[in-house]
User: Fold these one by one.
Assistant:
Number 1:
Amino acid sequence: MKHSLDLALWYPRGCNFDFIGYTDADYAVFLVGRKSTLGMAHFLGSCLVSWATKKQHSVAMSIAEPEYVAATSCHARLLWIWQQLKDFSIDTGCIPIICDNTSAINIVKNPCQHKRTKHIDIRHHFLRGNVRKGLISMNFCATDKQIADIFTKALSREQFERNRLELGMIKTT
Amino acid sequence: MSMMGERNFFLGLQIRQTSNGTMIHQQRYVKELIKQLRMETAKPIDTPISASTRLVMDDGSPSVEEKSYRSMIGSLLYLTASRPDIVFSVGLCACFQSKPKKNTFEGYKNGF
């Protein structure tokens, strides 16, 4: 930490209010209990306004499950910020959630009861309703473009530094 | 209410406002923390946690004092307010609070 003392969060002036959520999950990274980790980051324009990392409650059977649960948590927080923005009369339109797992996105889009998803509890499915209403959209991005990666796993130095820059952390000097 | 001028220090967060934007950091806090933990001479590393690190509950190494481990985690959790890059490693180490082992602790100290 000593050599990164001069890092600071940077909030540029006059950036837009494009609201966007990044969500990522890492499958069974935690060796004790084999639970997955979820990570999320929310941006207003290029400003990082909210971030979180959390060990999930349940053990997942495939990578799509923690990604889906992570997207739901991300969406819950998005709604909270969205409500606050609405109080300030800021209309964000349809809010994109960026996820790097196509299976998770497809679970959201396709409401059929599949034998591989029927154990996912109802509380995680409220994301679907809001996607159908057009409040939220689920978008795909490649893993190396995923900003929330830094919250779910240990990264190599290059990845770490790139990701840190994308979060809006710059040197003060 | 009185106008005290531009805010530049708030709850340990240092704020710098320029014409281009705002900068938030906790340099002063980190410096104090390093001094408090007597880690001024520790070797700096590039990332807070190595990609090959695998932490387990009991790896057979001797235990460390729980209280100081918990206090370190608490101090670092406060730091996450301006440092989203260490959130994951702090969170991971916080999972081992009940019986911290020496290896976890060492790995953790490396984070500085």
Note: Helices of chain A lie at 64-87, 102-109, 126-133, 157-166.
Number 2:
Amino acid sequence: MIDDIETGIRGFIEENFLFRSDGGELARDASLLEAGLIDSMGVLELVAFLEDRFGLKVADADMTPENLDSIAALTAFVAGRTAASVAA
Amino acid sequence: MCGIAGLFGDGVGTREDAGDMVRMLDAIAHRGPDGRGTLARTGAVLGHVRLSIVDLPGGAQPLEDETGDYAVTFNGEIFNHVELRRELEARGARFRTRSDTEVLLRLYIERGEACLAALNGDFAFAIHDRRRNLIFAARDRVGVRPFFWTRGARRLAFASEIKALLALPEVEARPDPLALAEILTLWFPLAPRTAYRDVFELPPGHVLVARPGAVEVRAWWRPDYPTLAEDAADRRTESDIRDELAAALREATRIRLRADVPVGAYLSGGFDSSLTTALASEFLDRPVETFSVTFEDAQYDESAYQREIAARFGTNHHPALCRGADIAAAFPDVVRAVERPILRTAPAPLYALARSVRAAGTKVVLTGEGADEVFAGYIFKEAKVRRFCARQPSSAWRPALFRRLYPYLPGLAAQSPAYLRAFFGMALDRVGDPLFSHLPRFATTSRCLAFLSGDLRAAIGAYDPLQALRERLPERFATWHPLAQAQYLEIAHLLPGYILSAQGDRVSMAHAVEGRFPFLDPHVIDLAARLPARLKLKGLREKHMLRDALGSRLPASVVERPKQPYRSPDAAAFFGDAPAPYVAEALSPAAVNAAGLFDPGAVGKLARKCAGGGARGAGDNMALVAVLSGQLWARDLAGATPLARSA
């Protein structure tokens, strides 16, 4: 399931932020901010994607680079929230 | 206000040269629909297309002096020509015309290069000095009027627009990869570079002196500011400055109303153009003709403020609605006019506005452009807040100030403090970088570089436009207040490189409409530059001194309204209900491959995102406009000459 989450997130980022496909794969832990892939609207696009695709509600307090700034962080965030909602 | 062209070199003046001049003038005929002149002399051919504004019967050009030693072709206006003429006459000069052109020529004959300091005007001109066998060309301080040149084996060629140079057989239309890197980082090619290889811009405030086989280019004017110590020692208060500033701006406006045709005004509804309108109405004995762009989308539209100002000053107001489809329809012509890729559609509504000005029978408009750069407008607040944050990078609440900077950007309003800190906190450790004020803007823009083709990226290599800009800064730069440093970057580079060209001369002169800029009067610039930084941007109150000195002339609602920068729909303009057919064609893999400028796969993804309404951020919008304008520009390049295609 984690693999599915990561694949979905990676696909969204490659299609909507990375654009190029000739630069090799984006590293799991590469910072989207430092790579210049994301701006302020980009964060909102990302949050909207997470909410639509994974049925989450992303609270304001969760909108932090710690949760959203790499494929690895996003995957962990979504997996954690999904597990929490299943457990609840 | 007109278009100029010239050829110079040993043996120049042949029938072939005269024929080439015809093609050059054809290419810039839009700049001067009222007349055309060519002067073939030994060693030079000068050409001119005329938009007649001053001395309608006597102002024909090129103009020779009575000895025939000197001849001038001149684009622009010398606003203080009345006073200069009086001084020259007092010293015995006799004039044959009432034109400012003859004043300029006389002054050059009397003083040589030193004549420039006396000129209060917007100008680009070339004088053929037959005695010394040289061309002396000069451009105004901030680059209102354009001047481009190139040099072949046999001759030097110059003109108001690049398209006139591309009409020559020796000039090939080839993109300059480094210029594209600069545009996609800085917004403009770094003069003297242009988007075309081997075609150069004479930078603002520079002269060009050409002798057969040699060209020398050097600065005659640069923006200058007090040192940090001088700024700190300046104890003046508002009341010490108020009257002098108001008088300078009134005078700047008064002499910019000099013309033998009616002068109108652009009215955006913001403080600057409202003030220009107010001042113009003080001097005119008839209603000011005001012209405005309006938008359907409330996030861009300012028509309520425009109507308020028009009513307050009793102007004869002409609003022009600009829809997304209008932007898309005008865009190919806009790219042809600006002669390079651009990052915003903002020139397109101004192109359409100039068309409507011309249709209303007006040739000259005052604009409020330049006030933000000269008097420290909203563009400088961000750097001030970033410097404030840099003192305490870990502060939790300081980043919240960033939201106050851009209340019109929905993306920021919804942002968490953590991300605000991440976006604006970039490079907080680089406060010593001379480009500190502009680093976030350049970082956002440079995302467009990712769309360049592999070949272009290889040609650009390790070239760094930011480093190139740093190396262009004057020695005194390091001694200035950080606010003055940021102002210098705007006035010396962004203003001429983008605002006054892509949003100014090129789109207005496409319809033979001349813009005049009271805020860019040299006395106003000098006075503003000498203001202490604490009075330019008082706290976060932008253009404080200007508001203080002249705000009482305007309704409080306009003086104190939040700044709404002039913007227009970008990507959305091209993907509406009925998209212009050229858009899909220009962005198709075949067209992208054929042009060779961009990566077809990346462009495809971007186009899909935009078509689906997903491009909401500045980065995506700039990339789309850059790619589309680049594709249209490449299509023009592929034709023999850009203008030949549209003729």
Note: Chain A touches chain B at residues 15-16, 19-22, 33, 36-37, 39-45, 60-61, 63-66, 69 (CB under 8 Å).
Number 3:
Amino acid sequence: MSALKDLLNGIWKQNPTFRIILGMCPALAVTNAAINGLTMGLATLFVLLASGLFVSLIRNLISSKIRIPCYIIIIATFVTIADYFLAAYYPAIHEVLGIYVPLIVVNCIILGRMEAFAGKNPIKNSLADAFGMGLGFTWALVLLGAIREFLGFGAIFGFKILGSWYPQMVVMRLPTGAFITLGLLIAMMNIIRKQKAEATCHAHEGGDKPC
Amino acid sequence: MLNLFAIFFAAVVTENFVFYRFLGLCPFLAMSNKTRTAVGMGIAVTFVLIVSNSITWLLQYFVLDKFGLPFLQYASFILVIASLVQFIEMYMHKYQAALYKAFGIYLPLITTNCVVLGLVLLTILKGYNFLEALIFAIGTGAGYTLALVIMSGIRERLDLADVPEALKGVPLALIITGLLALAFGGFVGMIK
Amino acid sequence: MNRILAAALVMAILSFIFALILAWASKKFKIVESSKLVEIVKVLPKQNCGKCGFPNCGAFAKAIIEGKAKYGDCVVGGEEVAEKIKEIMDM
């Protein structure tokens, strides 16, 4: 089913963080702990779904010239809702995430998907795409957060794993740790991707496709 | 006076928007290949920062607060920024054609540059008056330009180096940014 | 209810103001059709002599497109150039 393909697309093949390299500001800023990454990812997922739904609904009604401002206002509305929701029900995490929640408005992933997909595709596919991208973003952030939290605090999701013998890598909690970890992760994903491509290539040995 | 200097200095050095606040990274990684485009981008962003910060400051205190509509902040602010960038784009297309072409897609992308929205929101959060907001904007733009120029200088030299395939491009740029962040981190605590 | 109305009103007014400004800008900063402009400049003698009444050949070409100059105004180019300009403008 085509919608399923759209959904799976965002999770690995076109993962927004590791592949398309979008939305890096929140990916680096709030991933000092896994739970923060998870919350940011889910908030972004909500905005993606809600905006994708609306944009896809009215895609034939908006003139092409003013589509970008329309998309942005729709996105801003849902980000406001998400922000107030977090402030009300999860005030502690909301405090930690700070201005990065309103910055979801300018998260290139959302505007990018509205422009590239939801603005041109029926509702079912748009929702699938939004869901896939949101999930892809979320697991990328959780991974990044888990690594930084593990090395920086010796814990994951608040559960202390390494005892007090572990000299916590403070650099992992700082911007530097974020940049370097993400850089190395993307490099690793590149290697994995290349090996997968080569493996598929060898499987088709003797065919007409060059390796 | 000292207060204004502190705001400026913090925005450029100790709380640099790229290395400390993780803002403006997408265009930072994309436009820092050549020093000429880096400087151009920095100047364009600085201009947008100054003008949009002024407008949103007025908007917040004379409209949103006056009529009790704080929840309109994100939507109205981004509307201001998007319109401003659109306006500048049209102006540059006509009067600065060469520069316009050099920027390509990255000029309209200043709208989604987190630096701009981040700045206007932070200004309100910190409760700056109009003059402080102005200095904050100038400092942020200067800091962003500084980050871009440093990065482009390094990357121009890296073009000649032998980089492993997997690290080419974004991964290496991120690692370099991390090391720069470490260097800038040494300034933390200079301003109390 | 009052606040919802106020919010809608503020957003509507803001959007209206910006739409007006941008509409004005799109006229003020309008780019002359570049392909025809380039084509006309190509067929002009490019001596920038000013005999047509414009500072240079580029300005003359622009004036042609805006309808502010006649095809035959280029004295140096003469009839030949006027013909070619007519062809381009009729495209």
Note: The helical segments of chain B are 2-14, 25-31, 35-64, 73-95, 97-103, 114-125, 130-158, 170-185.
Number 4:
Amino acid sequence: MTNQQTLDDLNYATALAKSGSEAPLVGGPVGLMWGILISVTLLAHWGIVSGTLAIEPQYLWALWIGFSALGGFGSAILGKKIATKPGVQSMANRVEHAVWSMFTLMLACLWVGIVISMLLGMGSVALFDLVPIVGFAGQGLAYGVTAKISHHKWLAWASGAAFLASMMCLPAFGQPVLYLIAAIATVFTVVVPSLKTIGFEHASQ
Amino acid sequence: MPANKDVQTNVGEGSVMQSNVGDIDEVIHGRLRLGIMAYLSAVNPASFPELLAKTGSSNGNLSTHLSKLEAAGYVRQEKGYAGKRPQTLVHLTVPGRRAWITYLEAMKELLGS
């Protein structure tokens, strides 16, 4: 084998290794689905608790159960599609999947904890206001880790926006306006970054 | 497995060096197998269609070379299903990753960089 052949083969291998390590993030469609769903649900929540919508607050349970069911169904469908995309097992995609799975688990634990404290008569409905506040902080963390691994600087901006949203929600704790702030913030912290991820994925194909 | 023999290797224009290439792993040292190992070093596991698309190889050719890598213990092929469709996932094994790093270091030394 000549030196030139060897170099050609090594260049070919390098190009393949690069295409793998620089594989785009593939979770954009799932993020977009959740972003739209969360924004609409938070807006409906605000409409109900503020009296803007003529719906009794006891139907909030139905709203959030519907949200979970729709989100779970959508994730399962989109997850199947994503599983066959090239580069889905790259380091960045594996880290992204892991941090968002942990994020979901964290919010689920918080939610169950609140329900238990209410069942024991030790908490109030206001405790649910913690979910968006902690949720935005968790988003900031998830985006920050993904930005570091994927080298996408714009994800660091999404991380900063999510931390800012968490700070902005805290002073509104216990007030209906918290859910309006959260609904608007979700557009900037989930919908926009997900659209950007999808755009980046399409551009790299 | 690593070949342990002396071969002539061109190291530059007009020059030929007698090199001991005992560390050059001949299982990896082929264009397609090199490509497979390189891609799996970044995306692990990768599906068979994904490797086909990335390497630009034919179905039969890729199968043959994957079998050689599997026989050396460098990759593991996992047959399963993605939904109702059959799917083959190719994993880079721990000895495979080790062999890949050794191969790259040996090539770097051989090419004098």
Note: The mean pLDDT of chain A is 94.
